Amino acid sequence: MAAVRYRRFLKLCEEWPVDETRRGRDLGSFLRQRVAQVFREGENTQIQDPEVCDQMYESLNRINSSYYKEKYPRLQDTSFTEITAEEYRMVLATDNLKQMDESNKGMWKRLLEKFNTKPPQDGAKE
């Protein structure tokens, strides 16, 4: 039975999209890492709680297949802010978040970072 569960999770990982704009924060990447952790031994992995494993698979599969999006259709494609999902995607991209973080630093902090010329510490004291 573990082999069947393993194959189902592998198929889900193949189908789940990976968003390259969210490096290190993407659900698809996290899912792949987690499946690799849980199924370390591949098809020979012993599942401690098969019911929980099956429930998790079913939940992830419903999210991936847009079950809830179709069951509860939205009246509009925007939120209360009138921003579309594509605009949110652009704002939440890792590169944009880094730029916003950099621009939110105060002038003093930027000057300290720019002029802080401490030599790299090798762990050896002179």
Write a structural description.
There is one protein chain. The protein has 126 residues and is an all-alpha fold. The protein folds into 2 domains: 1-73, no CATH class; 74-117, no CATH class. Helices cover 57% and strands 0% of the residues. The chain contains 7 helices and no strands. The longest helix has 15 residues, at 50-64.
Chain-wise SSE layout:
Blueprint: H1 2-15, H2 27-38, H3 50-64, H4 67-71, H5 85-91, H6 94-103, H7 107-115
Helix pairs in contact: 1-2, 1-3
Give a concise summary:
One of its GO terms (cellular component) is mitochondrial nucleoid. This protein has two domains: 1-73, no CATH class; 74-117, no CATH class.
